[in-house]
Amino acid sequence: MKKEPIIESSGNVFADLGFSQEEATLLKLHADLMAELRETISYNGWTQTEAASHLGIGQSRVSDLVRGKWEKFSLDMLVTLATRAGRKVELRAA
After folding, report:
1. Are 31 and 70 in contact (CB under 8 A)?
2. Greatest pairwise CA separation for the chain in angstroms
3. Which domains does the chain have, with CATH numbers?
4. Those residues with Cβ within 8 angstroms of residue 59's Cβ, 6 or more apart along the chain or in another chain
5. pTM for the full model?
6. Rounded mean pLDDT, 60-70
């Protein structure tokens, strides 16, 4: 049985999947912000209705967020939501 080689990750799964560096960076930012928002909602024990109130959006948008429907959120919106959730958003060069 032939074993597949193990390739160490670059730290960005999107780059590892072959996306251009620019697109991989944007996709990772998007994914990281969504994950942080889901973690914040869970950590605070917010229901979707409570999260909607804290974030200033409708409950259905919170549902989209926790279900990982990334295509429904712009990067700008995710930064706005993270700020509303009390998170400090910083962009750091890697």
Report:
1. yes
2. 55
3. 19-84 (1.10.260.40)
4. 48, 49, 51, 52
5. 0.82
6. 94
